[in-house]
Design a protein that fits this description.
Blueprint lengths: L5 E3 L7 E2 L2 H4 L6 E3 L9 E2 L6 E2 L30 H12 L11 H13 L28 E3 L5 E5 L6 E3 L12 E3 L5 E4 L13 E3 L4 E2 L1 E2 L2 H4 L5 E4 L8 E2 L5 E3 L30 H8 L8 H11 L12 H13 E2 L18 E3 L5 E5 L6 E2 L13 E3 L4 E4 L30 E3 L4 E2 L1 E2 L2 H9 L4 E3 L9 E2 L8
Parallel strand pairs: 1-3, 2-4, 3-5, 7-9, 8-10, 9-11, 10-12, 11-14, 13-15, 14-16, 19-21, 20-22, 22-24, 23-26, 25-27
Antiparallel strand pairs: 6-7, 17-20, 18-19
Helix pairs in contact: 2-3, 6-7
């Protein structure tokens, strides 16, 4: 131990005193023990080398700061434990270098603890660099799957289908503002639901289905104001028993499994504010796998499974078009918050028109101040004959996938343009935006092989925003 630099022994049940031989080690810079004046468990006579957990100014890289933000019920910093890894990341490698009294340091530690407890190195995205060096220089409120309120308190954690494994750390219960927790569809999450979750008084949505959790839902959760609680309690082979009225048993239309069977009249019903589609795995296959969290595609799929009340199955002809419209909603800003309506048929969405048999054929969003890029999934609307996104603030390139719209055809001439009675109606209109690049040849082919007669983009002038080899008109 001649090269030992730091010793962490606080928040344990050790008593006595630090051996004088440790104090004399030349390489040792810090000895952290429970020697704080209010409750001395271990005396330390090593001078400035002693760290008695009295909240110094920082806990960041290179410091030996306080661990007052760490739960006393943690794993006592046993070497190599998730708690030790999370603390050492905060103390030694976190680029934010937060002070010990920073209100965010505790929730940042808890999220780091989740990362190290639940196989974070193999998740679909990285909160913390896998070697633990360098850390994450972003606030935890912008980490994938994490959402905070205006005061930067974590209120939502959505880690569904990202490769979680291991047991759920009970310290999550110390996120007192948390309202939404989704750890579903992670088959290697095991153990039991922590009893400490009873302290999550703000929690109203809890998703723990399609995991390997076992046991029973703690009775204290039943007395909370949880609106939706999804666990694997379905018959005939329940993994978890649940006696809460909020329980919804994923994967079955039967009532939840409970220790004492209830009369059918007491079978819980899904709250009107929430819907969860029990066919979510088949739906994911139709949509196309597991999109990366934080993307419009992920948000759209999550909405389709967790919020949408239409209950469309994988064989529904409306599934893809509803998903694509949801992707569009999450790809651009300034659409009304209620544009994506879980209660309504997508043919009733503002600017969307359908054929008599309910197939989306036209999308018109003109001068709506939309900001964002056109999603490639628009190319999956194979029956669309009319697209008009004129006079918005769209940026990026024109998706090549629009070349799949072989039925694209109709244009209503927008204001500012003279409407000619003999002007061909089969146009794609995308001008008065900030799109750049080149109109893909796949789209130009539609002018000779498909129903598309012409394309209008911002291709005018000596330095056009976008080049086009098939545009008959450059407004």
């Amino acid at each position: 131990m001649k090269e030992l630099e730091r010793i962490y022994l606080f928040h344990t049940l050790l008593t006595g005193s630090v051996p004088s031989g440790m104090c004399s080690l030349d390489t040792l810079n810090s000895i952290s023990v429970d020697c704080y004046p209010q409750n001395v468990l271990v005396s330390c006579d090593c001078g400035t080398k002693c760290n008695c957990d009295v909240a110094p100014s920082t806990v960041g890289p290179g410091s030996t700061g306080s661990t007052s933000f760490v739960s006393r019920k943690s794993d006592s910093f046993e070497d190599g434990s998730p708690g030790a890894k999370a603390f050492h990341w905060i103390a030694d490698h976190d680029s934010l270098n937060l002070s010990a009294n920073n209100p965010s340091v505790k929730q940042r530690y808890i999220l780091a603890l989740m990362f190290y407890s639940m196989n974070g190195e193999d998740w679909q995205y990285t909160w913390i660099e896998t070697n633990g060096i360098g850390g994450n220089d972003k606030p935890e409120c912008v980490w994938d799957g994490v959402q905070c309120d205006k005061s930067n308190n974590v209120i939502k954690i959505d880690l569904a289908t990202i490769g979680l494994a291991g047991s759920i750390p009970s310290e999550i219960a110390e996120l007192s503002h948390l309202t939404y927790l989704d750890l579903s569809s992670n088959g290697f999450v095991e153990g039991r639901i922590p009893d400490e979750f009873k302290n999550l008084h703000a929690l109203d949505h809890l998703f723990l289905d399609n995991t390997n959790l076992s046991g029973e839902v703690p009775s204290a959760l039943c007395r909370m104001n949880i609106e939706v609680l999804l666990v694997d309690c379905y018959q005939p082979d329940p993994k978890i028993s649940c006696e809460c009225d909020a329980c919804q048993c994923d994967g079955s239309d039967t009532k939840p499994f409970v220790n004492t069977p209830r009369p059918p009249t007491e079978s819980p019903t899904l709250p009107p504010t929430h819907f969860k589609n029990p066919q979510k795995h088949s739906i994911k296959e139709v949509i196309g796998g597991n999109p990366r969290p934080g993307t419009p595609e992920y948000d759209a799929l999550h909405w389709l499974i967790h919020t949408d009340k239409q209950g469309l199955g994988p064989n529904s002809p409306r599934l893809i078009q509803r998903y694509v419209l949801a992707v569009l909603f999450y790809s651009v800003r300034n659409l009304p918050d209620d544009w994506l309506q879980p209660d309504a048929n997508e043919c009733l969405f503002l600017g969307v028109l359908c054929s008599d048999d309910g197939v989306v054929t036209k999308i018109t969003m003109v001068d709506d101040e939309l900001v964002g890029s056109l999603p490639t999934d628009l190319g999956r609307l194979s029956n669309v004959t009319f697209l008009n996104f004129n006079k918005n603030k769209l940026f990026g390139g024109v998706p090549t996938e629009l070349g799949l719209l072989t039925n694209l055809g109709e244009l209503r001439i927008v204001r500012g343009k003279k409407r000619l009675t003999n002007f061909p109606p089969e146009y794609l209109v995308l001008y008065n935006n900030d799109l750049s690049g080149t109109v893909p040849p796949e789209i130009c082919k539609l002018t000779s092989q498909g129903a598309l007669v012409g394309v209008e983009v911002d291709c005018d002038g000596t330095k056009p925003e976008i080049s086009c080899d098939c545009c008959g008109n450059c407004p």
